Backbone:
């Protein structure tokens, strides 16, 4: 089965919707970062739309593939997991999930990945010039590229990140990064401009720094950052790591958070519960985050899976070593023990009272760690964890109402402990 | 101070009326009307046993699946909190409560103060609940009470996969039609064992801490009790009126809340 | 089919005491140590050269209740890994002195995390295994294997000499050779040994000292080649998919009229396919064998494994493929749509079975296999 015809008009609708959301946020006169976020996403999709006509190469990639290389070579990135999820939500999740099923993808596969394959099967993915994927963060990501490469009959590169963070592993990964560059050079017929890459890495260095600042500011009581911001920051980073827009966006958030922190103001008038959360919030429940904060005074002060994104020193003159350092600072593709220690530390540093674990039924590798983390948090940091069985992108798995019920119960439990 | 705890379950509504921490009266009525009316009726019935009337109630706490529909409740609380409190009130040494109702199964970790530290439920599946046993009783063509006792007479336990209620039904049918057929008591023992394994699994996910209490309608089923005790390897603590535990807890909370007010 | 093979009786006896088989018990009674390994990318020779017996960590045949394992991992961890963990928690693997895992797939590496956290054995080690076969992948894998050697030496206070490594290579190469011999016989039009029987042999091979196994295996190959034995079966099948250890499952398929002549399994072909070639450095030679071995679905690029699978399908003149996928087995479920396409494009029909690890293959599975074989029949008639 090959995909010859691709329908890029689908992208138009996404751009429209994103623009609409940006307009609405501007009209609400909320914080600047709010509308910037949707502008950023709209721009990313626009760039994908116009890549061909502007004579740029389009490379579709999975999570944590260094977009810095792509920006340095003026290649337009298409971040598969994030963008396909947005596209599916705009066009109808049900249709997408049936397409995946018809394509032979079992429903036990993470819905995020099924949505990627669904978009491809339906021909809604713009036809990229190449695919680049890696084993970060799980086996499914490792296997994403094979199917797409065959379907679209395009060259592909798999970037291998070893399990252990040791000298041979880092060396190996740096070599892999070098190979990725060679692949992109072969694809485009151009050589990597290493000066340009250093400039791009400088952006990464700055965005990492600002991210770090924001994480520090969140330690304040009451919490100065809105729950929604972390999702926005994450998607922005996955789309735009190395781009100057990311720095500007992070700085806008930082300014907002800093202002609140300096005034000693919380994002809610009465902060009642300070929470850690683990893994990604189900996409269809993002509105719940606002409700949590506004109705219940529940603020999310840290996300141990996501805070490592601001770790790893970046030296713009040594791009490969820096990218390797950043990759190995992430715990998802490595051993669990060091992560448990980090989680306990964060629980204390952020004065968390409770934790929520989003247990995605399609995610093998994170769910298997829940028991150990939950027990450690109770025993060593004295805080209870609410485990919510949910699905990353499929709203039929557990409804917003059910989740809200469980959250309410959990808040009751936290009240009793005060 | 006169207070009431209401447990709005899927099959029955339970109410307990407390005065100065003593149980004055209680009722279990089968759900016939919609939430609010049901709740009012339960209270009216229960209060008849006392010298009071509904307007004398100073504080009412509602719990259970239908708790949000009780507009006249002063507060609504999650079943986990109420089960914890109720268990603590009756048996201060209990640290785990397993509540098996008509359509829900909840396991709660209880601390010394009677608060819920953790809870887990069987949201997605009926095989660890009362409706499963009812369906099985129909299949075995005997009343539930009879089936409960029958497994105690079993000579061995029939193998029944504990994966899913639907498959379990198929397996029961194949046991009945086997040549020679599996003895009825053995099949029933198998049904109880299967449910015990399912629920035991849920308890293990939250961690077994003794003493362990069993509540809910299914706690009246002696066959199931023995099977669960076997699975967990311990003796279960069972209230004399196991269906009332959550309502009792709700009433205790009502007591606390009203004390705070005054 | 004809009579039971004599040597198979012996094998059955050994397997009957799984996991603490009589040979393992005898080994331990000599005061020697046992390490379980997870995955074909763990170099057994290195462990054996330390004087320690490597055995494969597997779950039990028959679907276990996995309640204990669920409590330590999660309901969506693959049932193979949970099956292994259930046995560990049930103290069936208490005789182990250590556990070594390759970080090869999500569920298995999380098992190692749980194992490390709860310290199920005094010695636990997990190491990186590259997913590609490139010169720098060999460098990484060699570094990791050297590290494994070091860790074993430090913990168990032994020296793993080059001689010991070469001796180990000889023993394991012999095992591989014997399996190759057996599988040459399975290429015949009327194979003298069934798929179910072969699986019993494969299981035993990893539940006893390899030199002892080689002796049994020699007798088996002798018996199988000398007797006039032919397994009935109208259609030649290949089984691929997730780890499979229950011979009852294969028997269920073979009872319905297919004969399984080859597999593409971790618990099968990947175990013995490549041999270690002589080279100046034993670790280098061993690493070359293990990394270059018949790939597992975790490896990239997909084409490598797919083409090799197609080749063996042709060599063994397969009429159809039965893919048994353990529910939640990530590498397989994601790979399957593509793998299936590859077979079907070459005119080889595929039956996909979604099941739990350890299943014996009853009811619904038999129905589907029957329907598949009937379909093959119809095709043959055309």
Residues:
């Amino acid at each position: 089965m090959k995909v010859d015809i691709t329908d890029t008009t689908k992208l138009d609708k996404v751009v429209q919707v994103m623009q609409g959301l940006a307009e609405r946020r501007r009209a609400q006169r909320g914080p600047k970062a709010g509308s910037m976020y949707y502008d950023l996403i709209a721009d990313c999709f626009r760039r994908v739309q116009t890549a061909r006509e502007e004579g740029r190469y389009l490379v579709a990639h999975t999570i944590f593939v260094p977009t810095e290389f792509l920006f340095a070579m003026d290649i337009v990135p298409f971040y598969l997991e994030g963008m396909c999820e947005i596209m599916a939500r705009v066009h109808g999740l049900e249709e997408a999930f049936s397409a995946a099923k018809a394509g032979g993808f079992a429903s036990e596969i993470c819905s995020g990945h099924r949505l990627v394959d669904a978009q491809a099967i339906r021909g809604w993915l713009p036809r990229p010039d190449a695919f680049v994927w890696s084993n970060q963060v799980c086996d499914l990501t490792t296997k994403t590229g094979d199917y797409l490469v065959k379907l679209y009959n395009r060259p592909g590169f798999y970037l291998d990140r070893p399990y252990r963070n040791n000298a041979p592993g880092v060396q190996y990964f740096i070599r892999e990064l070098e190979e990725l560059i060679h692949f992109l050079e072969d694809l485009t017929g151009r050589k990597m401009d290493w000066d340009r890459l250093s400039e791009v890495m400088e952006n990464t260095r700055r965005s990492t720094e600002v991210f770090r600042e924001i994480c520090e500011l969140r330690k304040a009581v009451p919490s100065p950052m809105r729950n929604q911001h972390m999702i926005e920051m994450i998607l922005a980073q996955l789309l735009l790591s190395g781009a100057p827009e990311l720095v500007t966006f992070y700085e806008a958030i930082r300014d907002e958070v800093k202002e609140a922190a300096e005034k000693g103001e919380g994002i809610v008038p009465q902060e009642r519960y300070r929470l850690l959360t683990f893994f990604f919030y189900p996409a269809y429940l993002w509105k719940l985050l606002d409700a949590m904060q506004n109705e219940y005074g529940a603020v999310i002060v840290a996300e141990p899976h996501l805070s490592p994104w601001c770790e790893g020193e970046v030296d713009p003159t040594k791009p490969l070593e820096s990218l390797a350092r950043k990759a190995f600072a992430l715990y998802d593709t490595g051993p669990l023990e060091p992560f448990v220690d980090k989680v306990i530390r964060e629980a204390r540093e952020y004065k968390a009272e409770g934790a929520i674990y989003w247990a995605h039924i399609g995610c093998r590798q994170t769910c298997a760690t829940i028991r150990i983390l939950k027990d450690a948090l109770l025993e060593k940091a004295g805080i209870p964890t609410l485990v919510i069985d949910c699905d990353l992108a499929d709203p039929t798995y557990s409804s917003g109402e059910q989740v809200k019920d469980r959250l309410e119960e959990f808040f009751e439990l936290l009240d009793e402990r005060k | 101070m006169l207070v009431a705890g209401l447990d709005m379950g899927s099959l029955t509504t339970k109410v307990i009326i407390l005065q100065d921490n003593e149980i004055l009266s209680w009722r279990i009525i089968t759900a016939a009307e919609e939430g609010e009316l049901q709740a009012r009726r339960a209270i009216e019935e229960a209060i008849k046993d006392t010298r009071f009337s509904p307007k004398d109630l100073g504080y009412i706490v509602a719990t259970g699946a239908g708790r949000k529909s009780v507009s006249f409740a002063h507060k609504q609380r999650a079943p986990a909190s109420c089960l914890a409190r109720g268990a603590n009130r009756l048996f201060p040494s209990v640290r785990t409560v397993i509540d098996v109702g008509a359509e829900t199964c909840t396991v709660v970790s209880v601390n010394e103060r009677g608060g819920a530290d953790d809870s887990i439920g069987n949201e997605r599946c009926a095989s660890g609940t009362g409706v499963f046993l009812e369906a099985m009783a129909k299949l075995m063509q005997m009343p539930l009470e009879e089936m409960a006792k029958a497994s105690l007479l079993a000579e061995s336990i029939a193998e029944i996969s504990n994966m899913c209620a639907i498959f379990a039904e198929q397996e029961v049918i194949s046991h009945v039609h086997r040549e020679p057929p599996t003895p009825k008591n053995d099949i029933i023992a198998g049904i109880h064992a299967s449910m015990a394994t399912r629920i035991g699994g849920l308890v293990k996910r939250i961690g077994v801490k003794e003493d362990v209490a069993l509540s809910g309608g299914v706690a009246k089923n002696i066959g199931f009790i023995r099977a669960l005790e076997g699975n967990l390897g311990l003796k279960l603590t069972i209230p004399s009126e196991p269906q009332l535990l959550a309502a009792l807890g709700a009433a205790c909370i009502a007591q606390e809340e009203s004390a705070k007010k005054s | 089919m004809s009579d039971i093979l004599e040597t198979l009786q012996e094998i059955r006896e050994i397997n009957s005491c799984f996991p603490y088989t009589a040979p393992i018990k005898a080994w331990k009674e000599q005061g020697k140590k046992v390490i379980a390994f997870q995955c074909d990318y763990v170099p057994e020779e290195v462990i054996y050269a330390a004087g320690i017996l490597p055995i494969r960590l597997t779950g039990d045949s028959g679907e276990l209740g996995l309640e204990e394992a669920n409590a330590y991992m999660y309901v969506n961890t693959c049932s193979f890994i949970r099956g292994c963990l259930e046995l560990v928690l049930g103290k069936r693997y208490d005789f182990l002195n250590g556990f070594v895992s390759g970080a090869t797939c999500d569920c298995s590496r999380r098992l190692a995390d749980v194992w490390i956290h709860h310290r199920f054995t005094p010695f636990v080690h997990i190491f990186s295994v590259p997913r590609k076969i490139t010169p720098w992948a060999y460098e990484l894998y060699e570094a990791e294997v050297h590290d494994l050697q070091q860790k074993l030496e430090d913990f168990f206070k032994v020296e793993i000499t080059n001689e010991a490594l070469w001796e180990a290579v000889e023993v394991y190469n012999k095992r591989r050779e014997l399996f190759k011999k057996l599988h040459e016989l399975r290429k015949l039009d009327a194979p003298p040994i069934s798929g179910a029987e072969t699986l019993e042999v494969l299981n035993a091979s990893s539940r006893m000292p390899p030199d002892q196994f080689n002796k049994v295996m020699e007798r088996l190959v002798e018996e199988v080649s000398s007797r006039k034995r032919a397994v009935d079966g109208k259609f030649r099948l290949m089984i691929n998919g997730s780890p499979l250890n229950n011979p009852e499952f294969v028997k269920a398929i073979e009872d319905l009229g297919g004969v399984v002549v080859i597999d593409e399994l971790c618990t099968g072909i990947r175990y013995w396919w490549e041999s270690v070639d002589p080279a100046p450095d034993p670790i280098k030679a061993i690493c070359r064998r293990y990394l270059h071995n018949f790939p597992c679905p975790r490896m990239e690029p997909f084409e490598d494994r797919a083409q090799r699978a197609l080749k063996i399908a042709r060599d063994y003149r397969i009429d159809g493929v039965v893919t048994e996928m353990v529910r939640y087995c990530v590498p397989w479920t994601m790979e399957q749509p593509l793998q299936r396409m590859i077979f079907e494009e070459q005119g080889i029909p595929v039956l996909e079975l979604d099941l739990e690890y350890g299943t014996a293959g009853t009811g619904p599975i038999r129905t589907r296999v029957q329907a598949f074989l009937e379909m093959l029949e119809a095709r043959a008639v055309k």
Notes: Chain A touches chain C through 51 residues (CB under 8 Å).
